[in-house]
Design brief:
546 residues, alpha/beta, seven-stranded mixed sheet, six-stranded mixed sheet, 19 helices, 13 strands, elongated
Length: 546
């Protein structure tokens, strides 16, 4: 079974319609109170002296069709089951409910079920004395020789143009003429990496791994070709070549980039950028999206729609609407850059010599380098296995700087400041940032306290404030805090080292980690294993012999 978010299959569409109505910011939608099997959503503020615009079809293409009901677009939408045309009775009910003497226009996607059901409903309405016209949307260009091109995302542009002219009070024949002119020029092509999944269907993708399908329909119908790639640049090239071949020399184009339902925002915007790097971009004046306008449930793909513009069309497309699904059209622009402020240079102290401090640094760095493999092995039991390598990388960097005689060894505050500024360069990740916080805050504190232990405790507090861990949370803090406290109390180095070791050993009995990757593990996975960060601290203190 596919993953599909629903309660009961039979009520999916009804619940979705109610959800749309109840959350519409325009508060102008209502479902017609009629037989429960007839799903018709209408504008509550409709003026029957104007031409009604009605569309509809199978559900599963949200926000189409209900998302385009409202001022400036549709008067009513008739909804069928998922991917199934609504019945004639529902369509006819919609027509006679919203249509006055001005008549109505049916905008219908060119699928057999829709064509037949809307067509028969139109004939029945005419027999009852209603003025009804019907236009078919055939914007799919993926199969050039197809005598019955499918209706795709270009449908909503027809909704917009028809709705605009209806809102202006235009006559039915003028609305038909203007909408048909648009339909004669609009072109759409889509591509998908995987087919859509129906509720209670199996997980079959329908497209082989690593491939994509050009021209796949919005109900999962096979397209014109299977492409041997899922590379965004290659796909953009193929799509735009098809569009350019179809439109010939036309320019001043509107480009609509439509998510078929399953693309993340990241993928959709990336795909849009790829499209805007093709020759099609030279023809584009305006763009709509990227966004979800006409979906196909969770189909992982997108469609591109192009429309040559003139001033009249652009004015109609930019007219305000009160619907939930429409996305504004904006002028296409080139990439914009703005100069950034340059980060101020941090003036670090000049190098100086101090043999005892140099020996402490050598010992600390060597301890981390010598224990790299052991710390990695320990981390692989409770984390991602790179603690040793991360710390060793930082140690190599500091040791190399020491050997080049570039450290301010005779000035504790300056040395702490140097470590705070530089340690993130080789280490990166959260570990480097935490140590940078510790040393930077310690440097600031040392300028007042002139006590290394107190300064390191102040730095540790900043590490805790930003890192979110405390002593007892099974992190390196469990070794650092007792060691720094012993140092601040003026205890002998053997006592300081002993405190660090005892703190590290205590993490073996802690059954819950409250920070870092270990926090995702259960007590059984942690018990008996020393925290690798705390272990690293204890090894450093053990090896230092000031």
């Amino acid at each position: 079974m596919s993953h599909f978010f629903f309660d009961k299959k039979a009520t999916i569409v009804d619940q979705a319609i109610e959800g749309i109505i109840r959350t519409s910011p325009h508060q102008n939608l209502a479902r017609l109170k009629t037989d429960n099997s007839l799903r018709i959503v209408v504008r509550q503020d409709w003026d029957k002296s104007k031409v009604a615009i009605i569309s509809g079809g199978g559900s599963g293409h949200e926000p189409m069709h209900v998302g385009f009901v409202g001022q400036g677009m549709l008067t009513a939408a008739v909804c069928g089951d998922i991917f199934a045309s609504p019945g004639v009775e529902a369509i006819l009910t919609a027509i006679i409910t919203v249509t006055g003497e001005a008549g109505c226009l049916l905008v219908v996607k060119n699928y057999t079920g829709d064509r037949l059901n809307f067509g028969l409903a139109a004939e029945k309405a005419r027999a009852l004395g209603y003025r009804v016209e019907m236009l078919l949307v055939k914007d799919d260009i993926s199969l050039p020789d197809n005598p019955q091109p499918r209706g795709l995302a270009g449908t909503i542009l027809a909704h917009k143009i028809a709705g605009y002219h209806a809102e202006q009070g235009a006559a039915l024949e003028d609305i038909v003429k203007n909408t048909q002119q648009l339909l004669n020029n609009v072109a759409t092509i889509g591509v998908a990496l995987s087919a859509c999944h129906l509720p209670d269907s199996d997980e079959s993708e329908g497209i082989a791994k690593g491939k994509s399908e050009l021209g796949m329909g919005i109900h999962g119908e096979h397209g014109v070709a299977t492409l041997d790639t899922q590379n965004s640049r290659e796909i953009a090239k193929q799509l735009t070549e098809k569009l350019l071949s179809h439109i010939g020399e036309e320019d001043n184009l509107l480009l609509m980039v439509n998510n078929l339902g399953g693309l993340s925002v990241l993928e959709l915007t990336l795909a849009t950028q790829e499209i805007l790097q093709t020759p099609l971009a030279d023809r584009i004046s305006f763009i709509q999206g990227p966004g979800t306008l006409v979906s196909a449930l969770d189909m992982k793909g997108l469609s591109l729609t192009v429309l040559p513009l003139n001033d009249q069309l652009l004015s109609a497309l930019n007219a305000p609407v009160s619907v939930t699904g429409w996305l504004p059209i904006s002028a296409y622009q080139s990439m914009q850059w703005q100069a950034a402020e340059t980060l101020p240079d941090v003036e670090l102290a000049k190098p100086s010599d101090n043999d005892s401090v140099a020996n402490v640094i050598k010992s600390a760095c060597q301890a981390l380098i010598d224990n790299e493999d052991a710390l990695n092995k320990l981390d692989s039991q409770v984390g991602d296995g790179d603690t040793g390598s991360t710390l060793a990388t930082g140690a190599h960097y500091v040791l190399a700087t020491l050997q080049d005689k570039k450290l301010p060894l005779n000035e504790p505050e300056a040395l702490l400041q140097w470590l705070g500024e530089k340690i993130t360069t080789p280490m990166g990740g959260s570990g480097g940032v935490l140590l940078s916080l510790l040393f930077s805050a310690a440097a600031a504190s040392y300028s007042e306290s002139k006590n290394l232990g107190d300064s390191l405790l102040a730095g540790l507090q900043k590490m805790k404030d930003y890192g979110g861990a405390e002593q007892g949370d099974r992190t390196m803090i469990d070794a650092l805090q007792p060691a720094f406290e012993a140092l601040a109390a003026g205890k002998a180095w053997a006592e300081v080292s002993k405190a660090a070791t005892a703190g590290a050993e205590s993490t073996k009995e802690m059954e819950q980690a409250k920070a870092g990757r270990s926090s995702y593990l259960n007590a059984e996975s942690l018990k008996g294993h020393m925290d690798p960060g705390a272990c690293a601290v204890s090894k450093v203190f053990e090896q230092i012999t000031p």
